[in-house]
Design brief:
Length: about 475
């Protein structure tokens, strides 16, 4: 039996531009390990930058080091970090988990950077692996696929300095995040969640969620809370019970979450009002496209008319929506893009304060429809090479997404954001900023009303000037 009980869990960088969240995945993973006698350290490379000497000390007497990664920039950073670990201490096993290893575990078996891969939810698999390694009884297979029978644990908050993650956002001044469920039963083809969790959904009880929020309010005095779940409203009654618990506890804060339009459209007026009384203020909804054909092809199972109804409900009950669109579906994205622009115009007319976010379609796993037009890496280490090392939700580039398409999208986005600066209330609107807005917004509104999006050079100049003055005061949104 090994005398090693120390486990290092690592969150590689997923962004270089801020907006990162507390590593709830690792904090929840750590809880059953701690309960079973293991000594866990969480190393989040967004807020820590250990030297090689410090890393050597972390790795000393470690049972293993666990690395979590999502495909793209984070998987690239994870591979770089794993190479450093191997150079510093080649004896410490490296265990991989998260979306990227779960989707691409078949490439891991021949990599010297991988000892084990946890596929899917990791609480039970990591605990079993830790016990086996502690007993010097190693699994025969690199790839560990286990049915997770454990309930979702509450985070071990003491493993991080949570104050470093509280942020001023569009929601509130001190915003934290929480995770109350994982997985999703829907079958959207573009989404990694349904693949990794095999369309299963598991959630914490309403009482567990209320207790966690109570802790955050008392210890950290949060004024806003973001549900980081992919699909918290799958069980509508659970969310209503959570909201009712917030009210009965007398919690004084505002909150936001993800949701599907059809889920919230199914709420009764009284249920909408209950959510609002509990502090529900913003909602992030993935619309993806204004093209019915695209929605059908990606198996979204929603209609454009449902998005209009959703906007009307938000306007009626005072909820601010954050609309998410994914641009660039193959083989020809232009019709999809123009249809989305038209839907956005309708949505903005209903909810002026609602924001619009554009993401670019990024395939995370091989798809038959992409054969011949998309080449994925054939080696684990190749994920750290171009173009995958720079992929993010907003910067992916593909052969079918032309420069003219990207320019069209950027021009539209420039006109839209400038036209609605007042309404979205992202920037301060007093003093010299008010004078700049007096020039910016009317020009943008003139273009917006006439659908003149092409080459808005005057807006780009004014917007760059405006942004330079407001860099420190912008309320960066925490996307879910």
């Amino acid at each position: 039996m090994s005398d090693k009980k120390k486990i290092i869990l690592v969150q590689p960088k997923a962004t270089f531009h801020g907006g990162f969240r507390s590593p709830l995945n690792l904090l929840q993973l750590a809880t059953p390990l701690i309960q079973n006698g293991f000594d866990v350290k969480v190393l989040d490379l967004h807020v820590e930058n250990p030297s090689n000497h410090e890393l050597r000390e972390h790795l000393e007497d470690a049972l293993f080091i666990g690395i979590s990664a999502f495909t793209g920039l984070q998987s690239s950073e994870a591979i770089k970090f794993a190479k450093i670990v191997r150079c510093i201490n080649s004896q410490v096993p490296i265990v991989w988990g998260g979306y990227h290893p779960s989707l691409w575990h078949e490439l891991s078996t021949s990599s010297s950077l991988v000892d084990y891969v946890i596929v899917g939810p990791g609480e039970q698999s990591v605990l079993e692996l830790s016990n086996l390694m502690h007993e010097n009884c190693l699994p025969e297979s690199k790839v560990l696929l286990r049915e997770n029978n454990l309930e979702i644990p509450s985070p071990s908050w003491h493993l991080i300095d949570l104050k470093k993650y509280l942020a001023k956002t569009l929601l509130a001044d001190r915003v934290g995040n929480i995770n109350t469920s994982y997985g999703c039963p829907h079958q959207c083809s573009f989404c990694a969640v349904s693949r990794v969790f095999e369309r299963k959904w598991k959630a914490k009880s309403s009482s567990q969620v209320i207790d966690e929020v109570d802790f955050l309010l008392i210890k950290y005095e949060i004024t806003g809370l973001e549900f980081s779940d992919n699909a918290p409203f799958i069980n509508k009654q659970r969310m209503l019970d959570i909201a009712d618990g917030f009210i009965k506890k007398g919690f004084n804060f505002v909150w936001m979450s993800m949701a599907r339009a059809d889920e919230l459209n199914a709420l009764s007026p009284d249920e909408w009002k209950l959510l609002v009384r509990s502090g529900f203020k913003r909602v992030f909804v993935g619309i993806e496209s204004g093209d019915e054909n695209v929605l059908h092809r990606i198996m979204k199972n929603e209609k454009v008319e449902q998005y209009i109804q959703f906007a009307e409900n938000c306007a009626r009950f005072g909820i601010i929506p954050d609309y998410s669109f994914t641009i660039g579906y193959p083989p020809d994205p232009i019709k999809d893009m123009e249809s989305s622009f038209e839907l956005i115009r309708k949505l903005k007319k209903i909810t002026l304060s609602g924001t619009v976010m554009f993401y670019r379609y990024t395939p995370y796993a091989p798809d038959d429809s992409l054969r011949g037009i998309m080449k994925f890496p054939s080696r684990w280490e190749d994920w750290a090479e171009k173009p995958w090392n720079s992929y993010s939700l907003t910067s992916a580039s593909h052969t079918w997404l032309k420069n003219s398409h990207i320019k069209r999208l950027r021009d539209f986005e420039t006109v839209m954001t400038c036209a609605f600066y007042h309404d979205e209330n992202i920037f301060p609107q007093t003093g010299s900023m008010k004078q700049l807005l007096a020039f910016l917004v009317p020009i943008a509104r003139f273009r917006w009303e006439r659908k003149c999006y092409s080459s808005p050079l005057e807006l780009k100049i004014l917007r760059r000037l405006f942004l330079s003055f407001n860099l420190k005061s912008v309320k960066f949104r925490m996307g879910t």
